[in-house]
Amino acid sequence: MNKLTTPQRIAAQIQDNTTIAISGNGGGMVEADYLLAAIEQRFLETGHPCNLTLVHSLGIGDREHKGSNRFAHKGMLKRVIAGHFTWSPAMQALVRNEDIEAYCFPGGVIQALLREIGAGRPGLFTHVGLGSFVDPRKGGGKANRITRDELVELIEIDGETKLRYRPFKVDYAIVRGTYADPNGNISLEEEAIDMDVYSMALAAHNSGGNVFAQVRDLVEPGSLNPRHVLIPGVLVDSLVEYRQQEQTYLGGYDLSISGQQKRLSSRDGIALVQHPVRRLIARRAAQELLSGASTNFGFGIPGGIPGIALREGVPYKSLWLSVEQGVHNGLMLDDALFGCARNADAIVSSLDQFDFYSGGGIDVTFLGMGEMDQHGNVNVSHLNGNLIGPGGFLEIAQNAKKVVFCGTFDAKGSKVAVTPEGLTIEKAGEIPKLVSDVEKITFSGDYARQSGQNVLYVTERAVFRLTSDGVELAEIAPGVDVERDILPYMKFKPIIRNPAVMDIGLFSAMEE
């Protein structure tokens, strides 16, 4: 049975008041934008489909037109359930202006919930999210005032408090692959990542919905290696071939990213962060790397740590690296292409990766830090009234054995001189980041203490540590005075015992 059709015919099948799940990741990875553009065009021309619910686990788009931006029109959406929002400022505006309902859940939770929906089970039962903004006691993941339905609830299992994320029907899943045969068998063998395409297709098919797939090439029946088929054709209703499909926004297809080839590499394969303050923070954080450890790097400042480690003799090659998109080891790419790597050792589904994280598979993680407060809480998901979303942050931060948060001491207008002698604060930033209480809790200090996690907060001026008594000032940068440069610009007073001075070698010039 030939399932090949056109994007316009698929767009015409999307009904009003239905739920669409889309797979993808920032940078264009496994983003079925050829199909999404057709759905958007139909809405702009006819006003349909409208009142949709959009579901996606990680950020998708180019911040302007592609990915989730295709749905960011007033009237097109009723509700969004997502793990990350920054790749669509238009979607953020709809949420902020209360034009749509919005639920912000951890990315791994959304992926696992789709699997549970596909398996016909009564939702997702997990510890992930306890104590954070998705805990019903702290908002239940609702992102604005018009969002009222309770999609997550507290339950007790064997005397322990857990969360149950409630299931919902998925009417359509839109996924992407490299190759498909006319029967709908789909291989992602030349894609950068696999993401959650199987669990998403399973959820839609077993909900009685439809699965639509975009692929680069249609091939002869029987020509696909069955080991390469990630979505069997029984789950797929319609296919669209798009020969201009690109692996990422880099353009073309790089087989060292998809794993078919190995590219000759050197330390130059990972760029060295150039901003002096961000470099300083990354250098100090890199001192927390543990030889042989299962290690994770988050987006932002932590993305600069691998480049530091390669150049400063830290045992980079002894680490086992992974990111939530499913990639293990290799030369991790950063910024818009965060989530893929050249010369990876393994690429598994993002859902499998999140299971690894949720169960405590990470020894040490390095994550960004939007705000930190007196309780040791960290916020990266809701900043200055804008919905950012945690992506994979929450599963990772809540379950890693050691967590190293990396962020600047303050924001907006801060001027800091990094010299071989230390740090000079020329102008304080207008926005403090070390506050009395964070806007929303993405990482719970109380949960971390109960779990026995080792937690550090690294800034350019100082390093703080979470203790049983609270947040302690552990180190200060040379040239920095606690009373002059630190305490006046914090909204709480940390525990001060006998802080050490940061290693002066961190402030010296680096070989590029």
Task: Kindly summarize this structure in a few lines.
By secondary structure, the protein is of the alpha/beta class.
Description of the structure:
This protein is of the alpha/beta class. It folds into two domains: 7-241, 3-Layer(aba) Sandwich (Glutaconate Coenzyme A-transferase); 269-507, Glutaconate Coenzyme A-transferase. It is built from twelve helices and 33 strands. Helix 1 (7-13) packs across helix 2, helix 4 (107-118) crosses helix 5 and helix 4 (107-118) packs across helix 9 (350-358). The longest helix has 14 residues, at 33-46. It starts with 6 loop residues before the first helix and ends in an 11-residue tail after the last strand. Belongs to the 3-oxoacid CoA-transferase family. Its EC number is 2.8.3.8. Pfam families: CoA_trans.
Question: Which features characterize this protein?
Answer:
single chain; nine-stranded mixed sheet; 2 domains; acetate CoA-transferase activity; Glutaconate Coenzyme A-transferase; about 500 residues; 3-oxoacid_CoA-transferase; eight-stranded mixed sheet; Acetate CoA-transferase YdiF; alpha/beta
Please render the helix and strand layout as text.
Elements: H1 7-13, E1 19-22, H2 33-46, E2 52-56, E3 77-82, H3 89-96, E4 101-104, H4 107-118, E5 124-126, E6 152-157, E7 160-165, E8 172-180, E9 186-187, H5 197-206, E10 210-218, E11 229-231, E12 238-241, H6 255-258, H7 276-286, E13 294-297, H8 305-311, E14 320-322, E15 327-328, E16 331-332, E17 341-342, E18 346-347, H9 350-358, E19 364-368, E20 371-373, E21 378-379, E22 382-383, E23 386-387, H10 393-399, E24 402-406, E25 410-411, E26 415-419, E27 422-427, E28 431-432, E29 434-435, H11 445-451, E30 454-458, E31 462-467, E32 470-476, H12 482-486, E33 500-501
Parallel strand pairs: 1-2, 1-8, 2-3, 3-4, 8-10, 10-12, 13-14, 13-19, 19-24, 20-29, 24-30, 32-33
Antiparallel strand pairs: 5-7, 6-7, 8-9, 9-11, 15-18, 16-17, 20-21, 22-23, 25-28, 26-27, 30-31, 31-32
